[in-house]
Amino acid sequence: MADLFNKVTGDQDFFKKIAGKIPGFGGYIERQNRRAADKLLRETIADRFEELWQRISAVQADFVSQGELLVLDDLERAAVKLRAFIDKIKTASYGYSGFFDATKINEEELARVYEYDAAMLDLMDEVGRAIDNVESSIGSDGLSAAIRNLNSAAQQCIDVFNRRDDVMAQG
Question: How is the chain split into domains, by residue range?
Fold first, then answer.
């Protein structure tokens, strides 16, 4: 997370660095940097999860073409959960806007938010592995369990985002 914030702050032009020394303006720049970092992070997460969602859609199309209609509903539940998660990320306010204006979030709360952000990044790998498992289980007795695992991973994504949102609301 620090690398992301440093990338955003390191890209400031000379004027912004000087203006950051003006009393009161530094806090504004810091908020703007956090907004930019948050936007970059969430766009990246949403894009990567969009790729995972497209993989699930491709598996669904394969199931339809192979006549595997019995498991299609279960797989659709996972796809819907993942789509809901992606939409939450895309539509949430960027950069804690509104939160920093009305509520001061302390460093401990901000660290907790970053922990949830890191958890969302970790969940990308978990969802990817769950999709791999579904793909490799096609035609086997383990397909239902693989789809349940994918559903569970997709639900975890929503749960982590909701807990992150709760931290922001409490701040």
Answer: 42-170
